Input
Amino acid sequence: MAGSVQDRQGEAAQRYDVFHTDCPARDVVDHVTSRWGVWVLISLRSNSLRFYELRESIQGISEKMLAQTLRALVADGLVWREVEPTSPPQVTYGLTEFGREVGEPLTELFDRITRRLPPNSADSADSAGGG
Output
């Protein structure tokens, strides 16, 4: 079984040269690690969300940037999009299996970083009655 995994890894290495500018895998990495791509994947890690819920969950993102980021992640197969034919249409987004696989280490990275950071000074001021 380990041989088959190595064979598949070897095939992937032959098909994709991630250091070459024309590599399609490089585009996916660029979309995932873009300013907003990481936050979209982390926001969708627990459940699917409607567009406005995603926008509210990611502070600082504009509707235009959220739409562009989602379009790229859907095209890459990381996020699925479902449109309910209502007026206005209700659009829901969620992670595909591939998106969950890619998002898992990002979530772990985020969790590791937040565990190592000192307490948030704004949170400390709020809890001390200063906020």
User: Anything to note?
Assistant: Confidence is low (pLDDT under 50) at residues 1-9, 124-131. The two ends are 58 Å apart (CA to CA). The helical segments are 2-15, 24-32, 37-43, 51-57, 63-75, 97-116, 121-127.
